[in-house]
């Protein structure tokens, strides 16, 4: 399971904290309130029972008391029920049998011993408190005082406190989420700067003054970018130096060998052969160096809208192929590509077709909804399935070539094709052409 | 015989190119620094100047600018630098063409011939004595251009490019077409066209950023509307 993000963790921590606080506060409030209310209620119950007991005692002072009548004269309301216990008999205002069972035995014993007692019980109507008052002549006066209302009040209180606790927890989570976002916002500037640098703008730096708390991060970031851009600069200079150092002697070689070539007729046959070898190898070496320097380029492709069909025709013309060989599929002809690289892709594919396939017979360019497809067909021997991946590696030559090759290919043509296709985020593949030969297919996404 | 001035600091390249170009029928004079080259050009102007960019002392770009400020001698850059910035900068400084080393002698010779043809073609272009586009007046045979009555100095390549568009008024010519007709490249670097159009605009337009004569047609090319 993925580790939850920073924001989630901060929000969860805030929620947990809010929950702990509010829950404990709610619990404490409830406890205190319940205790206070209950104590007050019980005091009330006791007082009322005591007063009523006094009335009953007075009422019972006659030789033949009407116990039920005395009980009935009490003002007990709907929440209180009064009972009298004398000589083993229970007297009540109304005939509700079984209620007296709720009067606990322990309490009765206490009253019979002559002590005042109070106990909480559970009746079928809910919680209640039973007060027992001893009266002379082994009489016990009991009042069952219903706590229904208080119970209801306490329930409501509990519900409200629970909701408040839940609400506070949610608010805590929300606050945590919001604060985490605010706190992480300065990191957006870091992200933006990093993106600029990836896109190639190596001058992007962060200003430590904007967010002093992140100063360590911004200074480290700036140092990292400084080092990176210094390294890139060194690499660039090295690449430029290498390019210059390789091209300069090649220029002399090319020019000098062309002079020798021109004057070949004036040379004896052995010298002339030497000149031929020299001339050929210099040409091949030049080709190789140019290809290698191209492979070593690491600049980003400059994609711009190009009329690819037109470009294909141009490249065909430059290779001596009739432009009619190019067919266009689909309607979109303008595609974002790096012009130079695309031209190289097609050029190298055509050269490859010439060298190994007897010449290209068809060039198809078509645009799908999200990609451009370029296909070059030849009617040569095709490419064996086991070679179809390796063929795009460096220095891999066709089976017709010798160890180093007697063709004049560098072995880098298709490697460059694959490289340039990849630079566009695309692919290069080879398959069989229906009818014989090879079909090279390049796909470039938009 | 055409005279070529070759400004190149690498002795071996200078010598081998001199030999090669002499074989092709040119008279070559070499200079190892830009300063030497500028002095030589002033004393005995060559028909074409070949210049390298990496020179000791005054660099190739400055050399091109100074040569260009004097006259419209055709300038071809021969450099090992193949970076976009360098190519564009060299062209903007005033070069007519740019080849990347190593360049075959035959190829260089072809470039020089194309340049020579450009000079002649510009003047032999049209039977019409003058082509007028608002405040722009072009006289192909005389090889003159005037804007709002005042003459404008264009290089041969710039003039040839302008004439090409002027002879097809209102028609859009693609970069590829212009490259072929003016520079004689069957397939080449279209930045040559873009930079030269920019240079011409600087010289003839009231506001080069909002051109009224040399208009860009997005995705297609350039045209000179009536």
Describe what you observe in this structure:
With 446 residues, chain A is of the alpha+beta class. Chain A folds into 3 domains: 6-153, Beta-Lactamase (2-Layer Sandwich); 214-295; 301-445, Histidine kinase-like ATPase, C-terminal domain (Heat Shock Protein 90), CATH 3.30.565.10. Chain A has 9 helices and 12 strands. The two termini of chain A are 35 Å apart. The model of chain A has no long low-confidence stretch (mean pLDDT 86). Chain B is an alpha/beta fold and 226 residues long. Chain B has 2 domains: 3-115, 3-Layer(aba) Sandwich (Rossmann fold); 125-223, Orthogonal Bundle (Arc Repressor Mutant, subunit A), CATH 1.10.10.10. Helices cover 43% and strands 19% of the residues of chain B. Chain B is built from 8 helices and 11 strands. Chain B has helices at 11-23, 34-43, 60-70, 84-93, 105-124, 156-166, 175-183, 191-204; strands at 3-7, 27-31, 48-51, 75-79, 97-100, 131-133, 136-139, 144-147, 150-152, 215-217, 221-223. In chain B, the strands form 3 sheets. A 5-stranded parallel β-sheet of chain B has the order 2-1-3-4-5, sandwiched between helices. Chain B has a 4-stranded antiparallel β-sheet with strand order 6-7-8-9, with helices on one face. A two-stranded antiparallel ribbon of chain B has the order 10-11. Chain B is globular, with a radius of gyration of 17 Å. The N and C termini of chain B lie far apart (41 Å). The model of chain B has no long low-confidence stretch (mean pLDDT 89). Chain A binds chain B through residues 240, 243-244, 247-256, 258-259, 262-263, 286, 302, 305, 307, 310, 314-315, 317-318, 334, 339, 343, and chain B through 10, 12-13, 15-17, 19-20, 23, 54, 80-84, 100-106, 174, 176, 186-187, 190, 219.
How much beta of chain A, percentage-wise? 15-25%
Report the radius of gyration of chain B as a whole number of Å.
Answer: 17 Å
Tally of DSSP helical segments of chain B: 8
CATH domain class name of the largest domain in chain B: Alpha Beta
Strand order of the largest sheet of chain A: 2-1-5-4-3
Share in β-strands of chain B? 15-25%
């Amino acid at each position: 399971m993925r580790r939850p993000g920073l924001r989630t963790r901060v929000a969860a921590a805030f929620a947990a904290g809010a929950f702990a606080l509010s829950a404990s506060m709610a619990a404490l409030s409830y406890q205190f309130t319940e205790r206070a209310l209950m104590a007050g209620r019980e005091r009330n119950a006791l007082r009322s029972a005591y007063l009523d007991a006094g009335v009953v005692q007075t009422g019972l002072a006659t030789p033949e008391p009407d116990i039920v009548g005395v009980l009935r004269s009490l003002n007990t309301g709907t929440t209180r029920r009064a009972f009298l216990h004398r000589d083993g008999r229970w007297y009540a205002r109304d005939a509700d049998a079984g209620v007296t069972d709720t009067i606990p035995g322990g309490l009765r014993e206490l009253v019979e011993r002559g002590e005042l007692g109070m106990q909480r019980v559970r009746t079928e109507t809910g919680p209640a408190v039973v007060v027992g008052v001893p009266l002379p002549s082994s009489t016990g006066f009991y009042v069952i005082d219903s706590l229904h209302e208080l119970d209801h009040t306490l329930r409501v209180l509990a519900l409200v406190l629970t909701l408040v606790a839940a609400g506070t927890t949610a608010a805590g989570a929300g606050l945590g989420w919001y604060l985490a976002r605010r706190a992480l916002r300065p990191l957006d500037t870091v992200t933006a700067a990093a993106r600029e640098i990836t896109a190639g703008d190596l001058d992007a730096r962060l200003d430590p003054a904007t967010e002093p708390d992140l100063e360590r991060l911004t200074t480290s970031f700036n140092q990292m970018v400084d080092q990176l851009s210094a390294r890139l600069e060194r690499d660039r200079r090295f690449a430029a130096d290498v390019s210059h150092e390789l091209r300069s002697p090649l220029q002399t070689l090319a020019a000098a060998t062309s002079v020798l070539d021109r004057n070949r007729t004036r040379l004896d046959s052995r010298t002339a052969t030497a000149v031929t070898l020299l001339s050929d190898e210099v040409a091949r070496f030049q080709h190789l160096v140019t290809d290698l320097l191209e492979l070593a380029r690491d600049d980003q492709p400059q994609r711009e809208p190009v009329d690819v069909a037109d470009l294909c025709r141009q490249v065909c013309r430059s290779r001596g192929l009739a432009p009619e060989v190019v067919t266009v599929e689909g309607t979109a002809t303008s595609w974002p590509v790096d012009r130079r690289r695309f031209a190289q892709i097609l050029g190298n594919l055509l050269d490859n077709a010439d060298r190994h396939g007897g010449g290209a017979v068809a060039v198809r360019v078509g645009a799908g909804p999200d990609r451009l497809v370029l296909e070059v067909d030849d009617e040569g021997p095709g490419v064996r399935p086991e070679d179809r991946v390796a063929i795009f590696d460096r220095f891999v030559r066709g089976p017709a070539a010798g160890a180093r090759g007697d063709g004049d290919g560098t072995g880098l043509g298709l490697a460059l094709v694959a490289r340039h296709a990849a630079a566009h985020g695309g692919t290069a593949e080879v398959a069989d052409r229906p009818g014989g030969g090879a079909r090279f297919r390049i796909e470039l996404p938009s | 015989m055409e005279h070529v001035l070759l400004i190149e600091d690498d002795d071996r390249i200078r010598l081998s190119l001199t030999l090669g170009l002499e074989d092709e029928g040119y008279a070559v004079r070499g200079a190892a620094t830009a300063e030497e080259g500028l002095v030589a050009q002033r004393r005995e102007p060559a028909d074409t100047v070949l210049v390298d960019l990496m020179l000791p002392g005054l660099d190739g770009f400055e050399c091109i600018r100074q040569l260009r400020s004097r006259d419209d001698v055709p300038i071809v850059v021969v450099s090992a630098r193949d970076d976009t910035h360098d190519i564009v900068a060299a062209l903007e400084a005033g070069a007519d063409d740019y080849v990347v080393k190593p360049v075959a002698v035959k190829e260089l010779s072809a470039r020089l011939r194309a340049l020579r043809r450009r000079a002649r073609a510009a003047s032999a272009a049209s039977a019409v004595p003058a082509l007028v586009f608002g405040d722009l007046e072009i006289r192909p045979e005389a090889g003159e251009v005037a804007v709002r009555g005042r003459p404008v100095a264009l290089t041969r390549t710039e003039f040839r490019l302008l004439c090409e568009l002027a002879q097809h008024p209102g028609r859009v010519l693609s970069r590829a077409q212009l490259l072929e007709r003016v520079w004689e490249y069957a397939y080449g670097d279209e930045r040559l066209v873009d930079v030269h159009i920019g240079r011409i605009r600087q010289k003839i337009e009231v506001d080069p950023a909002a051109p009224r004569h040399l208009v860009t047609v997005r995705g297609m090319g350039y045209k000179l509307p009536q």
